[in-house]
Amino acid sequence: MTEAPHTHFRRHRFPAEIIAHAVWLYYRFPLSLRDVEDLLAERGISVTFQTVAEWAAKFGLKFAHQLRRRTRGHFADKWQLDEMVVTIKGERYWLWRAVDANGYVLDALLQSRRNKAAALRLMRKLLKSQSTTPRVLVTDKLRSYSAAKAELMPGVEHRSHK
User: Fold this and answer.
1) What confidence tens digit (pLDDT) does each residue in 55-93 have?
2) Is the pTM of this model over 0.70?
3) Which among 16, 57, 74, 105 is placed 20 to 30 Å from 121, CA to CA?
4) What are phi and psi of 98, to 5 degrees?
5) According to CATH, what is the number of the domain 78-160?
């Protein structure tokens, strides 16, 4: 995160490395502004939480774009697909998720059904967003995954467990 160009940090009292570190802490971890203030204070840097909020508002979008550029195309080639039931206002829905081998959530989809069409929709969405096919696809024993994989990705190795 500290690789951000120093020109963005002109006319600030603190060095670019401190600003970048504070914004990175705030967006990377589930920390409040006061938590970031405390972490910086432990390192001997006296910054108020209002200052961290201003930095986050001013530089947060730039950091998000840099992170997105860095991680694009760097996901693992082993995808794990799973679904779970979610109740929303008394209605049952299925949350379909795709996670790579490193634990990054590739995509998620909320559907009212748990069938081949829903699995196809998730896989199409994944292939479009990732623009690459995985080497290995790991799923549970739901037959919808096998049918959708056979239709969209016939050359991909499929492992089912549980």
Assistant:
1) 999 988 877 677 666 555 567 889 999 999 999 999 999
2) no
3) 74
4) -125, 125
5) 3.30.420.10
